Amino acid sequence: MENIKSVYELTKLKDKLQAEFAKNKLRVLVCAGTGCVAGGSLDIYAEFKRLIEAKGLNVDCELDKEDNCQGEESHSGYQVKKSGCHGFCAQGPLVRIEPEDILYTHVKLSDVEEIVQETLIKGHIVERLIYQNPMTGEKFSQEHEIPFYKKQLRRALANCGNIDPESLEEYLVKDGYMGLANAIIKTPEEVINDILESGLRGRGGGGFPTGKKWQFTRIAEGKKKYIICNGDEGDPGAFMDRSVMEGDPHRVIEGMSIAAYAIGADEGYIYVRAEYPMAVKRLKIAIAEAEEAGLLGNNVLGTDFSFHLHIKEGAGAFVCGEETALIASIEGKRGMPRPKPPFPANKGLWNCPTVINNVETFANVPIILNKGADYFKSVGVPNSPGTKTFALTGQVANTGLIEVPMGTTLREIVFEIGGGIPGNRKYKAVQIGGPSGGCLTEDHLDIQLDFDSLKTVGAMIGSGGLVVMDEKTCIVEVARFFMNFTQNESCGKCVLCREGTKRMLEILERIVAGKGQSEDLDLLVELGQTIKDGSLCGLGKTAPNPVLTTLKYFRDEYLHHVENKICDAKVCPALKVYQIDPTKCKGCTRCARNCPAGAISGKVKEVHSIDVLKCIKCGACVKACAFDAIEEV
Amino acid sequence: MAKTNLSKAQRSFEKVNDIVQKYQAKESALIPILQEVQEEYRYLPEEILTYVATALDISPATVYGVATFYAQFSLDPKGKYVINVCDGTACHVRGSSPVLAAIKKKIILPQGKKTTEDLRFTVQTVSCLGACGLAPVVVINDKVYGNMTPEAIELILDQLLQREEEGVN
Q: CA nearest A466 in B: which residue?
């Protein structure tokens, strides 16, 4: 792309591209997010291209090649594009056709021919590929009508799934880089004021006001300042940042550039998890494109503001999500946190003043600069304005990536957007904020999700992972799972975190193995509180949260494990008890022959019985029985 | 495979030199250097760690400290097929444990090891791959398999093993 030398040129180019874009009659968007690619969406994309070309339809008239398009009446403008994540991952691979907004779900390679023939050429909808609500059977052909999307408000994710993430032109069509253009004609202080005015708070979990962070760094003394984007999304069960980096990489770059201009930085890093290779690839493409267009690098948009951006790939350490640990990792060291203060705003990367913000925080910045602080504040709640993305996963009908105004209730998210719990099972809890967060029970369904109200119930918004659990999930086992995770990821610096989490894990392992002791629960609480008090960074300070909140809300379940050796959800293998129903047993001896532990006895044609002490709970007898006579109780 | 006269170690160090040069032997580039070395050799051989330390003018202990801190680095050789079983929260509550058990039934690992003796398979769990919509997820050498069940993964492994047999013979 040609070099854009001024804000005027950028606006002119945008207008031109938007006019070109409007000419396109039909656009086929094939989701190329990690989820859909795993389902084969790249082959589907290739097949669309091949078929449309084979049928002689004018395909993929590139936006910038104006000469090819102008004056040609035959230019029907069929575009086939790879897009970023649509968010509705469980229904993938997804294909959307614009401008009708038709969404096809679970598309297979063999369906492409039919879509081309019926929808693209004849304009008919292929009924069997449209979304059907699994609960009601109701069918929806248009994306925005589907309940999963209808209740959402997509701002940070506005472009995800709507543009080709590998095309700068498409981002420009959607008003891309206009936030930067607006920022660059203001003074840095005015930009910071806009962010302060908007009330934007850090989306990585802490909820610290972004404008204040920028202000502190702006006034901090230092010849060189840095901007870092924290894309080390380590919470298991969260993938919001991945989707933004993969689906709309230019927005992250734009947000960072605005921040760099505001604080007076000329260099920045995007720290991306190694587990996200596609995000790395798309960001690299986007950086190269932006540099070529003069939107990044030396003399951005012809001004004397310069900003150089690098990508740092993480190497797999959850603690690097902590800002001081992340800085250490960029410096090439072990990613261990250090005490604060000094805060990164004063002494950050290589001891220079540094702003670290999360991916989603940066994704919100261009909106504020482009549409104003009031627009941003028009949704959400007073202390937590704007929207928040969540990764909705676990035992819920519609899993995927969502964005809702701050203050939306959990009930709306789980039951309206998420479509409820599959298989008519009962809602049990939502784990929010991953291994640092807490669980929200049925009593909390009407709580507003925002930074402050969650704190009152011992949970936190975290980065935005929402894992739904139903009655078949054992809460003690889940607590053990999280403790196992944080224990593994503890960097080992603080004794209380390193040793304390180990002891907590041992106790939890003992409980799920049926060897819990009556004093264990009190010991867990005591250890948990001590670890929280005595750890340096967020990892240790929050590691006991899942255990402490589940102990608070599901104490009975813990007690059943410890005292009665019963797992209510029938998950913990060591606590399973098998019984033979005497009315069903025919005495065929099959179970006894299949039992590897010799725990079943009984004579031929007489009712058999299981010796609980010998039973190793493998379940082989259940599978072997032809009369359904053996059951777990 | 064509064999050169250079010994294995010599060949190794040539590659390492290129990688170190690419990053101008900067200490701050230790992590990307180790990442590229690992990509080249599939693990971090001990003699190469020492060599990198000398090249960057830092102590071998510093290099070793970084190499053992991050989960991505492996000091043991990895198998030809690296099977990553996601055990993130979403995968866990949707049943990643039975899937892992099914894999371990097919691929027998030596006690306490993650890689088979013949260096064909490495089986490990990862915290989250961010493909939670497809939970549970298994990734075999960059190919993502979603909505896994013990039966489905067995089928995939059978096909893989069959291809391996055919390829070898």
A: B90
Q: Which residue intervals of chain B bear CATH 1.10.10?
A: 3-69
Residues of A with Cβ-Cβ distance to B145 under 8 angstroms: 38
- Looking at residue A66, its pLDDT comes to 37
Chain A with chain B: Cβ pairs closer than 8 A: 138
Average pLDDT of the residues of chain A: 91
Instruction: Indicate yes or no: CB of B145 within 8 angstroms of CB of A38.
Output: yes
In SS3 terms, chain B reads as: CCCCCCCHHHHHHHHHHHHHHHCCCCHHHHHHHHHHHHHHHCCCCHHHHHHHHHHHCCCHHHHHHHHHHCCCCCCCCCCCEEEEEECCHHHHHCCHHHHHHHHHHHCCCCCCCCECCCCCEEEEEECCCCCHHHCCCEEECCEEECCCCHHHHHHHHHHHHHHHHHHHC
CATH 3.30.70.20 fits domain A576-632: yes
Pick B93's closest partner by Cβ from A312, A316, A395: A395
Q: How many CB atoms lie within 10 A of CB A96?
A: 21
CATH of A475-564, one of 1.10.60.30, 1.20.1440.230, 3.30.70.260, 3.90.960.10: 1.20.1440.230
Task: Tell me which chain A residue has its CA closest to the CA of residue B88.
Answer: A236
What pLDDT does A309 receive?
Answer: 98
Question: Where is mean pLDDT largest: A546-560, A577-591, B126-140?
Answer: A546-560
A482 in contact with B at a CB cutoff of 8 Å?
yes
The domain defined by A23-145 folds into Glutaredoxin (3.40.30)
Any chain B CB within 8 A of the CB of A39? Answer: yes
Residues carrying CATH 3.40.30.10, chain B: 81-165
The CATH topology of domain B81-165 is Glutaredoxin (3.40.30)
Chain A residues inside the 8 Å CB shell of B35: 274, 313, 315
Which of A179-183, A210-214, A423-427, B50-54 has the weakest average pLDDT?
A423-427
Give the mean pLDDT of A512-541: 94
Closest CA of chain A from B119, distance in Å: 23
Q: Is the pLDDT of residue A61 over 70?
A: no
Tell me the CATH class for B3-69.
mainly alpha
pLDDT at residue A281, rounded to an integer: 95
Q: Is A390 on the interface with B (CB under 8 A)?
A: no
Q: What ipTM does the predicted assembly reach?
A: 0.85
In a mutational test of the A interface, the residue from B28, B62, B128, B140 whose CB has the highest number of chain A CBs within 10 Å is B128
- Name the residue in chain B with its Cα closest to that of A93: B134
- Output the pTM of the full model: 0.89
